[in-house]
UniProtKB/TrEMBL annotation:
Keyword Transmembrane: yes
Alphabetical UniProt keywords: Cell membrane, Membrane, Transmembrane, Transmembrane helix
Organism: Oceanobacillus polygoni
Family, as annotated: Belongs to the ABC-4 integral membrane protein family.
Record-annotated MacB-like periplasmic core domain positions: 21-280
Residue ranges of every copy of the ABC3 transporter permease C-terminal domain listed in the record: 310-436
Topology class, membrane: Multi-pass membrane protein
Keyword Cell membrane: yes
Protein name: Acetoin utilization transport system permease protein
Subcellular localization(s) per the UniProt record: Cell membrane
Main location per the UniProt record: membrane
Bilayer-spanning residue ranges: 21-45, 299-324, 361-385, 405-427
Amino acid sequence: MKIKDQFRFVRQNIKKNKVRTGMTILATAMGCTFLIVLASVGYGLQESIVKDTLEQQIVTEIDVYGHISEDGNYRPLTMEDIDVLESIDNVNAVTRRNELRQFPTFSLDEYKSETTTVAAHFPSEIASGMELDEGRLPEKPNEVVVGYHFLDYFVLDVEDENIYDETNGEIKEEYLYQADLIGKTLDMTVRKDEMTDDNEHSIPLTVVGILKEPTREWMQDQKVYISSDVFADVEAYTGTPGGELGVDVNALESTAADSFDNVKVYATNLEAVQAIVDELDDGNYASYSVVSEMKQINMLFTIMKTGLILVGTIAILIASIGIYNTMTMAVTERAPDIGIMKAIGAHPKTIKQIFLLESSYIGIIGALIGTVVAYVVSFLVNLGLPLIIEFAFKEELPEQLQFSMIPVSLVLIAVGICLLVTILSGLRPAKRATQIDVLKAMRREI
């Protein structure tokens, strides 16, 4: 019997029992839908968390915290380490920063602000992706650039409780500096602990540039980026590392003069990150990259998705009971047909194949219907569930949060499981069909 004849025979038999076959297909479709929708939660949450993590961090960025010697001692990074890091293959830039350990006061006319101050190496910063919104980079030791939000906190030096807007909590516009800051000279005032008349030291700094706004809306950059010469001037005045207050004035002598608080390595591309991290580990450098975090997150979600798929498979296994029952009844009802086929010389393998085709037919139709329904349910979940949660719990969810996502790989897994279960469910009835006695079948004794 040709394969097309076998399919014709299967379709004819299914038409004879539309209701029973339809209910079996429905049960299979429900099991497939349950599997896909359940596992899609794991895929959706993974996509949301991974996407959010990647958006918050530069994927080619590697934080290097220090060097661990063979005896286990930890030391900060120096210029020798910077040279080593820059010599690694596929390293695009190595930035190094030192942060003042006090908040200097920056003043201009009647306006002032206290903010974080960082000594940066601008050539490496530009190579790593730092961009200016306006102005230029510093060329002299007393020239600085400021963060994009610096002017949002550069206010009149007045004692007024009404400085903040009650509606949004921001500083009222009339208290903010309104003129162009480029080219203006700020007085940076630093302090030291000694209770003398010379307790404050003022350094004039010219603003030559303003950095671009951070890509993330919630990020605020109000820092002032100074030169290493100004940073050294502050250390010399306070006699402490980074101008820190409340420490031994002799502490500077025991600290490496060229050490850095913050060092970041930037790879040329994402594919090179892991190789650089491995080389840093071999060199006993303590480091961290978003790639390492992604590995851990993906591993957790892989376990979660596997568990959800296994739970969803239970629904298909329950549906397989119906398939087994349907195929068993089909064998009994078609005993005369089986007897005729065996009498005219049909091979038992052909008879078995016909019943396996029928069970596979039920599995494929059920899987296709279940997949379509799963996509509809997934769409409704992503559309309606956030609204329900916000209404019930009064919590506003992140815009990028996705509860359900159905990739092609999940569909293939679900269809494969569904097809495998239906074939296994039809094996026993198909084998029973090949064992039917011809004479009994012809006499309808089966």
